[in-house]
Amino acid sequence: MSATFAILLSALAMTLIVGVRYMASSGGFAWLTSRVRPGLYTELRPQIGREIYWSLLSAAIYGIPAGVVAWGWDNHGWTLIYTDIAAWPLWYWPLSILAYLFAHDTWFYWTHRLMHRPRWFRIAHAVHHASRPPTAWAAMSFHPIEALTGAVVIPALVFLIPIHIAALAVVLTVMTIMGVTNHMGWEVFPRFIVQGVAGRWLITASHHQRHHTDYRCNYGLYFRLWDRLCGTDKGLGSFVSEGGGGTGPLRDAVGGEPGRAA
Ligand SMILES: [Zn+2]
Ligand SMILES: [Zn+2]
Q: 28-38, pLDDT tens digit by residue?
């Protein structure tokens, strides 16, 4: 088999995996939503169709770099992914997970802020904010340019930070679950976590919901660290089902002086 064909096959396989993972996780949490918050998505059906369309397109964009790297790992020993658990001390296992989440969060925060500049917002980020309010299906609802900024993160990090294959699976699982639950329209985590000490530093749906209603705040992905350091943290939001949330006008998303990053 030629290398080109093998890379294509690997990219296709990864696209399928990402697509099926999206359908299973978003579908699962959408089903849970129909049990826990009956009727929450009833009026959002046309929007959900668009969310699925953009998300499946994103699956291909995520699948291509992942497929190339997986092929290189398998055939040429690329990347710092290791399979022998004894290759690094055990304490490194959780540390590597934290390092990946922190690096991803940092990249996401700054690219996300950039995409809230008026010009970039219209080009690359308006698709994601067309979900008003978002649903569990919006987890990967990105314009291809935005999808590309997300798709390169893990394939780049595996060349920079050593990680055990199972730790990488944990990172991908956290990424998937948080991507879905943060857009679900209700809080899945218990109040003692969201309102407690952990919630002051961790991002859950209550935090990201505020980004979708107020736009120019709460840019983070997993941690509130960058938002707090940069003064863009506006605290937790509320949900439509609780009488809050709702839809902010598009001009809020791109308002303010163009030169101001927020
Ligand atoms: Zn945004
Ligand atoms: Zn979002």
A: 999 999 999 99
